[in-house]
Amino acid sequence: MVCSFRIKQDGRDERLLHPDRGKVRAVADEKKFKLEDLSKFTGEDGKSYVAVNGKVYDVSGSDLWEDGDHMGAHTAGSDLSAELEEAPHGMEVFDEFPVVGELE
Length: 104
Fold this sequence. Notes:
CATH superfamily: Cytochrome b5-like heme/steroid binding domain
Strand content: 35-45%
Order of helices and strands: EEEHEEEEHE
Largest sheet: 6 strands, mixed
Structural class: mainly beta
CATH topology: Flavocytochrome B2, Chain A, domain 1
Number of strands: 8
Shape: globular
CATH class: Alpha Beta
Mean pLDDT: 78
Helix content: under 10%
Number of helices: 2
Radius of gyration: 14 Å
Strand order of the largest sheet: 2-1-3-8-5-4
CATH architecture: Roll
Low-confidence stretches: 1-28
């Protein structure tokens, strides 16, 4: 079985077992983000969020997104859907990050 976490409103995590899933994944009660909301999560306050294909991911824990900067090419707080087509990787890299919401 695989364990994942659901982040509760009070900030505590709840462990969930998923026998049918092959990856550990943190899931949260999905919030609806407008682009202006997303733009507040630039990494300046420690939280780095990016949107890709309508999902908002928390990339704060990644060394590749230190202070909201990704390799000098991308900035947290933005929708990177179009840029993904030119990236040397695909959507699979986002499987490692928690989905924190949905981009409207």
